Amino acid sequence: METFRQHLEKFISVTDDEFSSILSFFQPMDTNKKQNLMTEGEICRSMYFVLKGCLRKFFINEKGVEQTTEFAIENWWITDTFAYERQCISNFCIQSVEKSVILKIDSKDQEELLKKHPVMERYFRMIYQRAYAASERRIRYLYEFSREELYVHFSTQYPWFIQRIPQYLVASFLGFTPEYLSEIRAKLRS
Asked: H-helix or E-strand containing 50?
């Protein structure tokens, strides 16, 4: 849990006792590769913090193809924010990409956490601001970049994803077919 503490302390200061209390609101979980944490049609009750491993959020489009919209690796959060905030049915699935160790918190426990530790309000505000800013940048890139430029940008900015995440999931995240991603990669190598 030291990983989580180090992450928190990038944003806020907590004593040992405060950290122990904060941690008590979370449920540690180990997941297997391709284990679903939430499926489409379920009420989104939880947020997940990745201590080790990788999760992804995706939906199944009208053609029955999985479309990955988000990844979460170490020290990142993931949930269906819209459904979580409203405690309603999600149109997304959340799944482990690889064997992972995560912390899970549900909405009710998060509210209690925020009441008991108001400093966590600041923490979550800062996390949401960063996530929102990243989302804004991604939307802009989708509009501005060609498909090849999108891949080059992604592989330059996040080289560890390209090495770590299966290529069919990278393609899904970028809105490509795996075949098209292979064509781009072959073209860039030549």
From this structure: strand 46-52
Task: Give the Cα separation of 62 and 35 in Å (integer).
Answer: 23
Domains and CATH numbers, the chain: 1-118 (2.60.120.10)
Per the CB < 8 A criterion, the answer to whether 61 and 94 are in contact is: no
Distance, CA of 34 to chain centre: 15
In sequence order, what are the residues at sequence separation of 6 or more whose Cβ sits closer than 8 angstroms to the Cβ of residue 33? 96, 97, 98, 99
pTM of the model: 0.92
Strand partners, 29: 102
Secondary element (H or E) of residue 95: strand 93-96
Does an H or E element contain 106, and which? strand 100-106
Cα–Cα distance measured from residue 116 to residue 34, given in angstroms and rounded to the nearest whole number: 35
Q: Tens digits of per-residue pLDDT, 124-168?
A: 999 999 999 999 998 999 899 998 999 999 999 888 888 889 999
Report the C-alpha gap between 131 and 149 in whole angstroms.
Answer: 22
Backbone angles phi, psi at 103, to 5 degrees: -115, 135
